[in-house]
Amino acid sequence: MEGxxxxxxxxxxxxxxxxxxxxxxxxxxGAPVVLKSLRPExxxxxxxxxxxxxxxxxxxxxxxxxIRAYGLVAHGGYCALVLEDFGxxxxxxxxxxxxxxxPAVLRVGARVATALAELHHAGVLHGDVKPHNVLVAPSxxxxxxxxxxxxxxxxxxxxxxxxxxxLRGTLGYMxxxxxxxxxxxVDARSDLYSLGVTLFEALTSRLPFAGRDALEVVHGHIARxxxxxxxxxxxxxxxxxxxxxxxxxxxxxxxxxxxxxxx
Length: 263
Fold this sequence. Notes:
By secondary structure, the protein is an alpha+beta fold.
């Protein structure tokens, strides 16, 4: 990777049709980094714009609970975001490989809530909280939020009704107001709803709302009451299920009102 200040990739962490996540090192100091790069043969101008937006958001933040961006590099027709590497895996990977004990889920959840509190204090809405975007160190002691392509400034955030295929965020994890179909603006409590879905999945190995198509999932978020986590999996303590149920309340005012309070 001549001209980028980076060594050739040493490990592929994730790949999709449009992007690639790999481990590499900086040639200047040997520090490990993760490259989030776009595939030039499939990436769209919107993908490039989202990557640049993510870099802009991350560069404006200096919080312990958010992945650090070192810069953008361009080489051979592709664009890549250079991120810190603290040896983490995504919570999604953890959940696919094992059933996490309840205390471990709570420990990770508390750290995500603390990270969101820092983020919201900085005036930023993550907009896509889900297990894929929660990075966890092997010890579970360090947890950081990643993937800020859907992030926005809280004071400017609003959501108008649009097609499910055009919504920002991920359908299975988005709040009712994020769907644009309940006439409510999106604020920090939307991230808390998405965290509630994430915790529900970590505790029960399923999502609260699933469906045969996108509209059915959106309808679930808007109109169906989420099942209680302790009814889906009896090993979940009722008090823990109460926390998740409050996070999954339809009206934002019925949820926890701040990530700091939740933590």
